[in-house]
Structures are given as C-alpha cells and as structure tokens.
Amino acid sequence: MSTSTNASPPPRAGFWQRIDRMEANRFGLLLFVPTLLLLLVFLAVPITFAVVASLNSIELTISPDWSFVGLQNYADLLTNRSVVEALPRTLYFAALTIALSVSLSLTLALVLNERFRGRDLVRVLVLLPWAVAPVVSGVMWRYMFHDRYGLINALLYGGGFITQYVTWFSDPWFALSIASIATTWKSLPFLTLTLLAGMQGIPESLFRAAKMDGASIFHRFRYVVLPHLRSILIFITVLQLIVSLQAFDLIYTLTRGGPGQGTVVLNYLTYVNAFERLSDGNASALAIVVSLLIMSLSALSLSLMARQGKR
Questions:
Q1: What's the predicted TM-score (pTM) here?
Q2: CA distance 298 to 241
Q3: Contact of 119 with 112, CB cutoff 8 Å
C-alpha cells in the first residue's frame, strides 16, 4: 500500500496582500513612483532639451538648422548688453520684493496672532490675493496706476497730494517698484500663513513668563517670537528671492517690459529672446543660468536651515 507524499503548494498571495505585507520603506518608495514619472516627463525632458539647445546656435529668423557652438552662448551672455542691463534691474526687483513681502507678512502674522473681534474675517480677507491669478493681478494693478483713470491718481488728486495725474509707468525704476508691490501683494497670503503657523507653535507659557518678568511687546518679540521664527524667516526670504527671479507673468501683463526695456528682468529677457527674437540658443543658455542661480540659492537655504536646526 502506497501513500502520497506530495504536498500542494501554498496559494500565491494576491496583489493587495503583497501590498499589505510590504515594509513601510518600500511602500513609501512605491507611492513616490507616480511623482517620479511626472517629474521625469515634465522636468527632466525639458531641462535636457534646454541644455542641448543652449550648446547650439539656433536663430530661427535665419534658419531652422542647429549648429553646435559649445559654450559660446554662455560666453556671449557676459557681454550681451540686454543681459548686463537686466541684471541690476533683477537684483533691485528681488531686493525690494523681499524687503516688502517679509516685513509686511511678519507684521500681518503678528497682528493675526492676537485675539480681537473679527479676527477670523480678517484672516479670510488676507487670503483673497491668493485666489487671484497672476495675470489678473497684473491687469488689476495696471489699471489702479493708470495715468488717466487709475484709482491711485484719483485718491491722491482728491486728497490734494498731487496737482495733476501722474504717469506712473513712464519712469522705469518706478514701474519696476509697482511690479514689486504687486508681486508682494500676491505673495502675502502664503507668507503670512507660514509665519502664523510658526507663531502658533510657540508655547503660551513663554509669553506668560515674559509678561510676568515685565517684558514689553518689543522684548517679547525680540526674545520669544523671533528666535522661534528664525528658520521660517530664512525659508520665506529665500523663497521670495526665488519667486522674484522667476517673475514673468505679472510683469508681462503690468508693463510688457516697458517703458522701453526698463522693466525687463532676466526671466523676462529669456522670454523675449525665445519668442520675440527667436534666438532659442541664447534663450536656453540664459534660462539655464537663471535655473542654476535659483538652485544655488535653494541649496544655501537648506544649508542655513540645517545650521539653525543644530543650534
């Protein structure tokens, strides 16, 4: 009499069972795959194309052909008059935008962190600029400063501050300042909420102890609030610097780069070279330089934040 010794194999685990048994690290990597694919399609491919284009002479007004020129496009940027003139305008625009946005968002966050009647309504109103598209913001601010029927001229003339309507956009630096104000207005909601979230994390006991010690409002801000917000302030400062270097859509709808080229910053010049002058090789080289500048500043931000975290 013979007995069978062959055991049937265990049933194979299904897809969801294998997902359920997966380690946390592997599951996290699996969730990252769709994002990685999107980044490869929408970032890696265009960046690679831009790098290749920056190494070629592409003058579409002359010929559709590409000719390899190596780093010549990058060398030309150093002597290009438009780039040399756009650089100080870009730095001025970035410095003014950072100064206005960081100081105003910090002030707003301090006010909204206090208890007062109607605080919830004010918090909602602060978010409104966030809901407005950048293109719409540019058009709105252009009409507010319009030289013939703008709201700013009407208010100043009605209040007796000016004797005739002012052509605000005739001066390049003043036009650039208005663009900076509009960019600040657009950025305020996110920056204010970020700082307000940081303030909400400060223990209330620190404020009570400071008040019991007789600390004034300034000293409570200096020795309680500011140390806790140092990393966040570094983050939003560098973030605004990046936003300023990427400025295009709002300037395009507000001034179209005028008067003349008075409000043309580096990122706007990239658009002009690519779509108006059809000099795609030079435009790609300038875009790569601006991108490297932004990445360098981002790395600097992470380095400063890491140092703050170790203290």
A1: 0.83
A2: 9
A3: yes
